[in-house]
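Retro notes (design track)

What went well: tokenization of the new backbones is finally stable.
What didn't: we kept losing track of which sequence belonged to which structure.
Fix going forward: every design gets posted as structure first, then sequence, in one message. First example under the new rule, 217 residues:
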């Protein structure tokens, strides 16, 4: 028995519907992809990148991993980043985390999950670094939400610090890095007030964004 029959049937209905609405849709996809956006997000199944920004296939280049972390030795992430910037020439890089992130929660609570604990180490370090800021928030849920935001801001900063992005800026390429967070409870995206388009403003914009004490609303 093929337990995935429903998925295959869903795919056929989806493909047929796309052709009905736009007969040339798939031939256009085959010809090229020219997205303006790179999305670096969490692997969480509740955060489907294309759907929550209302973009069809071909308009959003996507990299996802647990807790939307950017590591300078993660060649998967860096390869996606380089291809997006240098080949596709995207104009915007959006690092998007989400409230209720299981990876952030595990790091926050110090739970041991196995191999993934090594991956989540930067978030634990982040919680220690900003514990004074977090402790000022009255509710545990607010501290957790703010750590989700701080993680997004840190990963956006790390994107800006890559040689890939800095060399693009040196070339005069039109490229902006953004930090967003998604709310599972209402389906809304929040801009964390970090949008950087050059090397010079990277660090000051990060410190300014981190200095916002209260969780975004």
């Amino acid at each position: 028995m093929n337990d995935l029959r429903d998925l295959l049937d869903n795919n056929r209905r989806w493909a047929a519907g796309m052709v009905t609405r736009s007969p040339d849709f798939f031939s256009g996809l085959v010809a090229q992809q020219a997205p303006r956006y790179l999305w670096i997000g969490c692997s969480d199944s509740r955060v489907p990148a294309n759907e929550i920004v209302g973009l069809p296939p071909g308009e959003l280049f996507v990299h996802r991993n647990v807790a939307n972390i950017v590591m300078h030795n993660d060649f998967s992430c860096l390869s996606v980043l380089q291809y997006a910037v240098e080949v596709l020439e995207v104009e915007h890089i959006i690092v998007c985390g989400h409230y209720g992130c299981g990876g952030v929660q595990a790091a926050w609570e110090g739970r041991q999950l196995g191999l993934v604990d090594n991956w989540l180490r930067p978030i634990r370090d982040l919680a220690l670094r900003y514990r004074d800021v977090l402790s000022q928030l009255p509710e545990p849920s607010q501290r957790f939400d703010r750590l989700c935001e701080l993680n997004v801001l840190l990963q956006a900063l790390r994107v800006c610090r890559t040689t890939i992005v800095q060399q693009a800026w040196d070339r005069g390429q039109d490229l902006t890095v953004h930090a967003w967070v998604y709310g599972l409870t209402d389906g809304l995206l929040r801009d964390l007030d970090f949008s950087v388009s050059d090397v010079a403003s990277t660090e000051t914009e990060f410190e300014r964004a981190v200095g916002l004490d209260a969780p975004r609303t």
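Added context from the reviewer: The chain is about 50% helix and 15% strand.
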